[in-house]
Specification:
Blueprint: H1 3-29, H2 41-53, H3 59-74, H4 77-80, H5 99-120, E1 135-150, H6 161-166, E2 170-171, E3 189-205, E4 208-215, E5 227-228, E6 241-252, E7 255-263, E8 278-291, E9 294-306, E10 326-340, E11 343-355, E12 364-365, E13 390-392, E14 395-396, E15 408-409, E16 411-413, E17 417-431, E18 434-445, H7 450-456, E19 462-463, E20 474-475, E21 480-489, E22 499-508, E23 529-541, E24 544-555, E25 563-573
Parallel strand pairs: 12-14
Antiparallel strand pairs: 1-3, 1-25, 2-15, 3-4, 3-5, 4-6, 6-7, 7-8, 8-9, 9-10, 10-11, 11-17, 13-16, 17-18, 18-21, 19-20, 21-22, 22-23, 23-24, 24-25
Length: 574
């Protein structure tokens, strides 16, 4: 038995002792005399016997208490003179304790508890500062074993536009001494990966909250917080990134506003936004309960995707270039309808405008060195994955006297993006706790213009020309995407032996969505991909589960590119 437990029992014994003594001595302590008929010695003795039987006190302690009570009663002639009280058979006697005695007991107990808590170092409810009671922590860990299985017959010369754009420009005048970096499409890879996230939530006021989360990550990628183990070499340590940091204002139950770096405020699938993607900016979320069976919501937001450097411009002159900021504007409306006792349907319809995300052809410019800047250089993607149609954005004028000299080039998205999205989920709980969830998601880029893209001179996403005499490349991009998935089991794994299994199919054409923000696992990230996703999860303990997924994807158009990704995950969250 711990010291704390023993102390608690001592205080409980003290309280009972005082209460029993008060039953016998109450007439002398109270201001008005108490009718002795209200006190039953038999009930008092039975209560003492019950306390002994329950182990609250020993027989010796009980005998001592009875002796003390008897002596106290004998000292008061008024009590001693009272005749013995006999209760009627079956009668219930409720002992009476005067208010003055009850207050005396409370005061004595409070004093003893306070004194002993100080001497023994007990934790009291108000011992910690008040602000600590408004802060909570949360997080999760995921260990992953991943195999990337490329088809050996894949096309080998897909330009790595992300690498080309991250450097000082690609010299298109001398591809021999400056070879194009290509994506690895033929060699398999195996790797272990780790994801760790730790967050803090603070309730600042009744309607003001703050949230802060740190996460791992191999780089600044917005769509992955995975850290590849061994990537740094020699067991080196890994970086932590600021994954979320925002203030939430919630003046009413139906309206909230998030400002900062926030979680995805829209109800979407990974067809449009990767699950690890967070948003910079401001979002308003509303929800309305029209009845217990029907609720609706409206979400809107504005998010800076890229902000122009304050001093952007040529290093060769004092003139600076105008800002070319990139923004995402989103709006979504939807409803959640429980149309039957064990069936519910959720729908969301949204539109997402990616302003200035596309590349722009520059004014004529000289670009022989890394110090040269053309006026649309920042229209190139600051981050991209794979699939979107690209074109050369610099309108390079050869230097006088050096027509074959260095000509450094950057590449941008050929398509503009204004994506309409319809997302639906049907949940059937007829076999509870096993549920059936059918999910469907459709996207269409309403700002896609194939004619405009052809005029810019696209560099990828061509279909084979069936005429061997015609070497003209035929652009074959697309603007649609869809995803369907069937899940059976528990959608959220919460305890041991919870399980689920799922099978889905995804098809996303080259320019249906920006490849930078969509799923980073399917086809190793990006667009221009189609195939199946099969997976399942099994609970091992509370908030701990094992997951397995197989993602098998091929190209939609262009040269062959087939890749399978197998992931075995051990997850836990707190």
């Amino acid at each position: 038995m711990t010291a704390s437990t023993r102390s608690h029992r001592r205080f409980r014994f003290r309280a009972l002792t005082l209460a029993l003594i008060a039953l016998c001595a109450a007439p002398a302590l109270a201001a008005p005399p108490v009718d002795a008929s209200k006190i039953s010695p038999e009930v008092t003795l039975k209560l003492i016997d019950l306390l002994v039987a329950k182990g609250v006190m020993t027989r010796q302690q009980a005998d001592d208490m009875i002796a003390e009570a008897t002596a106290s009663a004998a000292a008061h002639p008024a009590i001693a003179a009272q005749p013995a009280y006999q209760t009627q058979p079956g009668a219930v006697v409720v002992p009476y304790i005067p208010e003055v005695v009850r207050q005396q007991i409370k005061d004595e107990l409070r004093a003893e508890v306070t004194q002993q808590a100080k001497s023994e170092g007990w934790a009291a409810p108000n011992a910690l500062p008040e602000w600590t009671q408004r802060i909570s922590f949360y997080g999760d860990l995921r260990a992953r074993a991943e195999d990337v299985l490329n088809d050996g017959e894949n096309y080998r010369e897909f330009p790595n536009f992300a690498a080309l754009n991250s450097g000082t420009g690609y010299d298109v005048a001398d591809p021999v001494s400056n070879p194009v970096p290509y994506v690895n499409t033929t060699k398999n890879r195996g790797r272990m990966r780790l994801r760790a996230r730790l967050g803090m939530h603070a309730q600042i006021a009744d309607w003001v909250e703050a949230d802060l989360r740190l996460a791992t990550g191999s780089d600044r990628s917005p769509v992955s917080t995975n850290q590849t183990l061994g990537a740094g070499g020699n067991l080196s340590k890994y970086s932590l990134w600021l994954d979320r940091a925002y203030i939430r204002l919630k003046p009413t139950d139906w309206l909230s506003a998030d400002v900062g770096r926030i979680a995805n405020p829209f109800w979407t699938s990974e067809l449009l936004f990767d699950n690890d993607l967070n948003f910079d900016g401001v979002a308003l979320q509303t929800k309305f309960e029209h009845s217990p069976q029907f609720r609706s919501f409206v979400n809107v937001g504005a998010f800076p995707v890229f902000n122009t450097d304050f001093d952007f411009g040529s290093t060769q002159k004092q003139d600076k270039e105008s800002s070319r900021d990139k923004w995402l504007y989103g709006v979504q409306a939807g409803a959640d309808w429980a149309f039957a006792e064990d069936m519910s349907l959720k729908l969301g319809l949204g539109y997402f405008l990616f302003d200035h995300l596309n590349g722009e052809f520059s004014s004529p410019c000289l670009a022989p060195t890394s110090k040269d800047v053309c006026d649309t250089d920042l229209s190139r993607p600051q981050f991209q994955q794979f699939g979107n149609t690209a074109f050369a954005i610099r309108n390079i004028v050869p230097a006088t006297g050096a027509p074959n000299g260095p000509q450094l080039q950057y590449f941008g998205y050929a398509s503009e993006f204004g994506v309409a999205n319809l997302h639906a989920s049907l949940e059937i709980a007829s076999f509870d706790p096993v549920k059936i969830v059918l999910e469907a998601d459709v996207v269409k880029n309403l700002k896609y213009d194939a004619a405009r893209i052809r005029a810019l001179g696209p560099l990828n996403n061509f279909k084979p020309n069936l005429d061997p005499a015609d070497t003209t490349a035929i652009f074959d991009g697309g603007d649609m995407g869809y995803y369907v998935n069937l899940l059976v089991g528990q959608p959220k794994i919460a305890k041991a032996w919870d399980w689920n299994a799922s099978v889905g199919y995804k098809r996303i054409e080259s320019d249906a969505v920006p490849d930078a923000f969509t799923d980073s696992d399917f086809h190793l990230g990006g667009t221009n991909a189609r195939g199946f996703i099969v997976g399942g999860s099994l609970g091992l303990a509370r908030n701990t589960w094992l997951g397995l997924r197989w993602l098998s994807a091929n190209e939609v158009t262009g040269q062959p590119y087939s890749v399978d990704v197998v992931q075995l995950d051990l997850n836990t969250q707190f």
